[in-house]
Write a structure and sequence with these properties.
Layout lengths: L1 E7 L2 E2 L4 E5 L4 H12 L3 E7 L13 E5 L6 H10 L7 E5 L1 H5 L1 H7 L4 E3 L7 H6 L12 E4 L5 E4 L21 H4 L12 E4 L2 E2 L16 E2 L2 H15 L3 E4 L8 H11 L5 E6 L6 H9 L2 E9 L3 H6 L6 H13 L3 E8 L6 H14 L5 E6 L7 H4 L1 H4 L30 H21 L5
Parallel strand pairs: 1-4, 1-5, 5-6, 6-7, 10-13, 13-14, 14-15, 15-16, 16-17
Antiparallel strand pairs: 2-3, 7-8, 8-9, 11-12
Helix pairs in contact: 7-8, 8-9, 12-15
Bound molecules: cobalamin and iron/sulfur cluster.
Length: about 425
């Protein structure tokens, strides 16, 4: 069978807009590798606003990836604009599908929805394309011939990712995979990798906790990096999952296994999952930057966000990281319910006191992301504007963390305070750390 997998093209909206693509769709490439292993042909095709209409009539299966809620509208437009053989099987997957499968199945006029990580189930779904009977396949939702919606729970996934095929990078042009100027402010030729999936935490603004935690072993991570050095001559890489340092044991295993490859790399982390020993091992293995979800300098806001960290842990982690010779980039989320001028001042004070120990700062505005605790329990947080609530306007595109200035909570006076304090924080960050990559 010939399969077309459509995914939303993502741009670096924070600074570059459509002039710069974000990084390749690794999950889709993992899925494509599993489809190839099952003996089918597969193409991965980007979709972006204004470029949704593709002629796919020579494919027997068309898959739509709804990897975030922000891109649902674009993918739904693609569904209606593409030319698709009426006999073709239309499959959907990705995080948004996993969160709201029944509704997404209807919105996308799809035959079957795959829930969660789908490398283990996609072959069986393709095999059932003639009968359209998906009975017995774990983690699928479909409408049977009698029009009844059927749902089968996902199987429990192994904790190890080693059995998951490596991303089928050969399906994309090399210039989409290997870039310069994107690794911790260096010009190194680099690519993106994912050594783990999911997160064990449940910060209120984040939906990453909905993905079960899985890790590659050190040996498997090394195998992937060696193949990347071989194929693309990379000098470095960025680890791009939710939270690379969740499991100390896995992180040390990977660090040790890749040490002699002499590659420079960066990864996301939490302030409470590093210590001097781990940081020493990461530095020896080539880590040049860790990206910490600092979020706020206010103990009150950290508690409100369910971050389970405190300002002292932020200070300690940043200092230890700088001592280990690793750059410490911090991410900040501004505007979570309860944010005010005082909490913003505490964030600026903390940034100022850490000063040059922080290599870079990325500032985001609070958005209730579908699937996150704040979205799914919006009333508890005083948040409005979700699709579960009255007055839903059907606009999924607003759940976007860049250039988002929606009034999500509080009265007009509180909103003005959030807006004013965000402007001050933004100016402060731009004055002190202007080189954001
Ligand atoms: C890496 C990443 C990115 C990368 C994406 C790189 C890429 N091109 O894939 C970048 C930085 C570009 C990015 C951008 C954004 N992201 Co992002 N991202 C992630 C992160 C950390 C990992 C995603 C991932 O690779 N997961 C692992 C792979 C294996 O899973 P997967 O991609 O979902 O694919 C698997 C399954 O879903 C399924 N599947 C997927 N598609 C399909 C299609 C079919 C047909 C089938 C059968 C199966 C299937 O099979 C795949 C293999 O198992 C997640 C966190 C998370 N836990 O998901 C956030 C996350 C998905 N991102 C999020 C957000 C908000 C965004 C942005 C909207 C941010 C913004 N600019 O405002 C954009 C838009 C992204 C988009 N695609 O629409 C939110 C989404 C929340 C939501 N409900 O919308 C998450 C959950 C993070 C969070 N903080 O909550 N992101
Ligand atoms: S913000 Fe970071 S630590 Fe918190 S749930 Fe999301 S990925 Fe995990």
């Amino acid at each position: 069978m010939d399969v077309a997998l459509l995914y939303p093209e993502i741009y670096e909206m924070a600074r570059f807009g459509p002039a710069r693509k974000e990084f390749p769709p690794l999950g889709i490439l993992n899925l494509a590798a599993a489809i190839e292993e099952a003996g089918h042909g597969v193409r991965v095709l980007p979709v972006s606003p204004g470029r949704e209409a593709l002629d796919l009539r020579d494919h027997q299966v068309v898959g739509f990836s709804l990897s975030s809620s922000a891109t649902v509208t674009t993918m739904a437009t693609a569904r209606t604009s593409c030319l698709i053989d009426p006999e073709a099987l239309v499959v959907i997957g990705g995080l948004h599908t996993t969160l709201y499968p029944e509704q997404t199945l209807q919105d996308l006029h799809a035959d079957v929805a795959c829930l969660g990580q789908s490398e283990d189930t996609i072959a069986a779904v393709l095999d059932a394309s003639a009968t359209r009977d998906f009975t017995g396949i774990p983690g699928v939702v479909w409408q049977d011939r009698g029009g009844v919606l059927r749902r089968q729970a996902p199987a429990r996934l192994p904790r190890s990712l080693d059995g998951v095929p490596l991303p089928a990078r050969h399906l994309l042009p090399a210039q989409e995979l290997v870039v310069a100027g994107r690794l911790a402010g260096t010009d190194l030729s680099m690519t993106h990798v994912a050594f783990s999936r999911g997160c064990a935490f449940d910060c209120a603004f984040c939906s990453a906790g909905r993905t079960p935690v899985r890790y590659r072993s050190g040996a498997d991570a090394r195998r992937e990096l060696e193949s990347l050095v071989d194929a693309y001559k990379i000098d470095g890489f960025a680890v791009v999952e939710d939270n690379f340092t969740v499991s100390r044991r896995n992180v040390l295993d990977i660090a040790e296994a890749i040490e002699d490859l002499r590659l420079a790399w960066s990864a996301p982390s939490r302030v409470d999952t590093v210590d001097p020993q781990v940081l020493g091992a990461l530095a020896r293995s080539g880590c040049i930057e860790l990206k910490f979800g600092m979020e706020s300098g206010s103990a009150r806001m950290l508690a409100a966000m369910g971050k389970r960290t405190d300002p002292e842990q932020v200070r300690r982690a940043v200092a230890w990281t700088a001592d280990a010779g690793i750059g410490a980039k911090v991410f900040i989320v501004h505007g979570f319910p309860g944010e005010d001028a005082e909490s913003t001042r505490e964030t600026m004070d903390m940034l100022a006191s850490l000063g040059s120990a922080i290599s870079r700062v990325s500032l985001f505005r609070f958005v209730p992301l579908p699937g996150s605790p704040v979205y799914e329990h919006a009333e508890r947080y005083g948040v409005h504007g979700t699709h579960h609530q009255a007055g839903w306007d059907g606009d999924w595109s607003k759940f976007h963390i860049h250039h988002n200035a929606c009034h999500w909570w509080g009265d007009q006076a509180q909103w003005r305070q959030v807006q004013d304090s965000f402007s001050r924080l933004k100016d402060f960050v731009e004055d002190h750390w202007n080189a954001q990559e």
